[in-house]
Design brief:
This protein is mainly beta. It has one helix and 16 strands. It folds into two domains: 57 residues, Beta Barrel (OB fold (Dihydrolipoamide Acetyltransferase, E2P)), CATH 2.40.50; 78 residues, OB fold (Dihydrolipoamide Acetyltransferase, E2P) (Beta Barrel), CATH 2.40.50. The protein binds zinc ion.
């Protein structure tokens, strides 16, 4: 793993060997031949260690990649101590494929958050800011009124949740749901 991460940023040409499928997943700008991942374009290697995906970024076209300060939109994949986010839009631009982001509980909100489950649930669509790219892991924050959940469905009945102050509620089964929402949460505010 250490070896492959050292390859990030390396300049490659079509046919350059990047790695093997046992260590990383082939992403955009790559192809697989006999178990080897090769570059299909001229550019630089980008390795997303969280999803173990390798991408080659073209020298010619300015690539859309998460950078410190980028605003990303993504789907919450799983929630434990951290939340894993699959980012599909960076600074308002859709990307083909995705990057993985990691959101730690200390970066959720300036309000006290007891557990990650009080802030996010798998399937939520959220907006977050990239605060660090240390070790090729994209660390995210939602600690801003404009950041947080944009759209969420009820985990009991699947209805879109509606925002009411700091809580969300289900118009169908009437359950209350806790989330760290963005100020422009898509569900209608009822007060
Ligand atoms: Zn419901």
């Amino acid at each position: 793993m250490k070896l492959i991460s050292n390859r990030s940023g390396k300049f490659v040409v079509p046919g350059s060997k990047i790695g093997v499928i046992e260590e990383v997943l082939p992403g955009q700008g790559t192809y697989v031949e006999n178990g080897k991942i090769l570059s299909s374009i001229t550019g630089n290697i980008l390795i997303d260690l969280l999803s173990r995906k390798v991408t080659v970024l073209s020298k010619v076209r300015k690539p859309i990649v998460p950078r410190i300060g980028s605003i990303a939109t993504g789907v919450v994949m799983n929630v434990q101590k951290n939340a894993n986010i699959r980012m599909f839009e960076i600074d308002g631009k859709s990307i083909s494929g995705f990057f993985s982001g990691l959101l730690h509980i200390s970066n959720v909100s300036n309000r006290f958050v007891k557990t990650m489950y009080d802030a996010f649930k798998p399937g939520d669509v959220i907006r977050a800011k990239v605060i660090s790219t240390t070790n090729q892991v994209f660390h995210l924050s939602t600690d801003d009124p404009k950041l947080g959940v944009l759209y969420a469905l009820c985990s009991n009945c699947g209805a879109p949740l509606i925002k009411n102050g700091y809580v969300l509620h289900c118009p169908s089964c009437k359950r209350r749901k806790s989330r760290k929402t963005a100020s422009d949460f898509i569900g209608q505010t009822t007060r």
